[in-house]
Design brief:
The complex is a heterodimer of chains A (282) and B (265). Chain A has 282 residues and is mainly alpha-helical. Helices cover 76% and strands 0% of the residues of chain A. In chain B, helix 2 packs across helix 6, helix 9 runs antiparallel to helix 12 and helix 11 runs antiparallel to helix 12. The chains are: A mainly alpha (282), B mainly alpha (265).
Amino acid sequence: MASKNFSSVARSFIAHLVLIILAFMCLFFFYILIINSTCSHADLQKGFSALPKNYFGKNFSAVANDGTFPMMKGIGNSIIVSSLCAAICTYFSALTAYGLYVYDFKLKKVAFTFIMIILVMPTQVTALGFLRLITNMGLYDTLIPLILPSIASPAVFYFMYSYLQSNLQLSLVEAARIDGCSEMKIFNRIIFPIMKPAVAVQAIFTFVGSWNNYFVPALILQSKEKATVPILIATLRGADYMNFDMGKVYMMITVAIVPIIIAYLFLSKFIIAGVALGGVKE
Amino acid sequence: MGFDNYINVMGKDFFTYMGNTFTLWMIGFVPQIVIALLLASWFVDARLKIHGEQFFKVVIYLPNLIMASAFAMLFFTLFSTSGPVNSILTSLGIVNGPIDFMGTPVGTRLLIALMNFLMWFGNTTIMLMAAIMGISPDIFEAASIDGCTPRQSFFHITLPLIRPILTYTLITSLIGGLQMFDVPQILTNGQGNPNRTSYTLIMWLNNLLRAPDYGRAGALSVYLFIVSGILCLVVYKMVNGQDNDAKAEQKAAKKRMKAMKGGKQ
């Protein structure tokens, strides 16, 4: 009995220790980031300090007014692209999932299999063809090729489909039809509101994925006014680094990362539940 | 003319870069899956009370949402020779002078692996938690009544029962590892230094697309397509097979319930 208690106490101790170490590793780097973004370049040259200084405002306005790295414009571009992506992606994926779930038609299996095949294919493999297509359409260096392809999102589709499988009674659709509701109205007025939890979770994931996307914008975008945040970070890395105001560098990274962190802290319950939901289905 | 590109691309470079990509994936993935399994089994264990469980879950998932390029930029500044990490190590007296983390292949690869680990272990933990919670708790109760220690129940009950999901995680992580781009690109500024030891396949593809060397880029894309296609087929077979397994399992469970009820009467 005594040994059983000891081993369970030891186990609890080890578990908490490992968790604390991992939590420290996750948070430590962001802590240094925030501290350093409040320091001036001179402060940073002196070495590391654990306490924040008072340069936050100055660094922030330096970043906001920087001509070579238009960070605010970049954030604006990123917000436009990401929100449109999230909205379009979730709506059309829900529509597709509804169509494939409720209706029976000849090529139903083919369509489903086709979407599943695309699901597991990485986007970088088709990047060359995509680039040529976009250039031929004259859409090179615009934000449109970043937004429109999100209409076809197999991962989100599959999530919506699984959600419908476990949450939609077909009798509801039939009742609405008997009452004389047109098909599109059934979807827009009845089904889409039912899918709100799934839509909310996928909207978050799509927004974050689009915000963090680097490979595709790096291919499509050229001019600085159209650049999204990851591209600005890459330009920062490639620039003549030694002449930099390090406080400004840290502030730029902070501005790129912190909005997502804040949104995450408010929405964390949804996000984690969403991952678990997707995991169980798979 | 047509096949020259294919032959040209399949040179020594291709295999070096593939090796790099695979190594970088491996050193990030192995700790990730081990830690994720450990954490998932702890979080799900009814007998082990974790204080602040929700806090830990929120914190470990946080790095997954961080922009990989900004994260790499952050690590670049933190681990540079005049950066905070070296400054802390020197002032604590652990080392005499600054360590050039990114001057050695080992240092750069470890940094990339650390970033990949931090970004993905939270996601893997949550998914494995969901998988373990799918196992009926009756099995664990029966085992503990029979005197099973937590370690035995983990290795002999949990692991075998979540094997499909572990395999799924392995393959999807491999597909993701094949696409590794943001982190090494930003950390090494597209060079894969030192000496191209951290140059991944997609970094190569990106450079070819920008050159622009569309011939070789196309050939490389086709090779990547073939490799991805094979991996995809494996995942697809597994997911479909899993559905059949799950359905068979449910049927068997229902039969058992019926038999039990029939027996009681």
